[in-house]
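so im writing up the methods section and need the Ribosomal protein S6 record in one place, dumping it here so i stop losing it
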Amino acid sequence: MEIKEVIKTVGMQVLTNGGIVRGINNWDTTFLPKKTRKHQATHTQGHYFLMRFDCDPATQKIVRDTLGVDPRMIKFSVVKMGKGKLEDISRVKGDADWFQ
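--- predicted struct ---
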């Protein structure tokens, strides 16, 4: 399964650079909001997942660079949660309520 390898690659990058993976949520395959062209192909579906992790800015750049060149990735986002304090982000569960 390709998504498993993508998650493993990103998780290992975070861990080997001193970061912490706090959780992984598999949102499964669903339709993209609109057709997307990436890596010389048009995509209508994608496999969504959420990985919560803490790391320094240099590690975040490594993760972003890796995901940007991976042909299995169509789109991705890295979002800062809270103000850098655990109590600010601990309430965020990572569930996709709109899929339920």
